[in-house]
Design goal:
single chain; about 70 residues; mainly alpha; about 0% strand; elongated
């Protein structure tokens, strides 16, 4: 469960959070509508953690793809 940081022009946490929430990976709580009741409801909806197949090494993957493209 996350409440993304969204002050000023920050949008990255909200964007990533929405994408993960759409896939059922986490519960996203909009910081503008955060209340104790909504936090409790999100906790109640949250599923037990499961093993996820997420690639968290995007920079290395991108570098590998670029190198492969250059070598062709």
């Amino acid at each position: 469960m996350i409440v993304p940081f969204a002050e000023g022009r920050e949008s990255e946490q909200g964007l990533r959070g929405r994408l993960l929430a759409e896939r059922g990976i986490l519960q996203l709580i909009d910081p503008d509508s955060l209340t104790a009741d909504r936090l409790v409801a999100a906790i109640d909806r949250a599923a037990a953690p499961t093993e996820l197949a997420l690639d968290l090494d995007g920079a290395a993957g991108t570098a590998r793809l670029l190198l492969e493209a250059v070598m062709r």
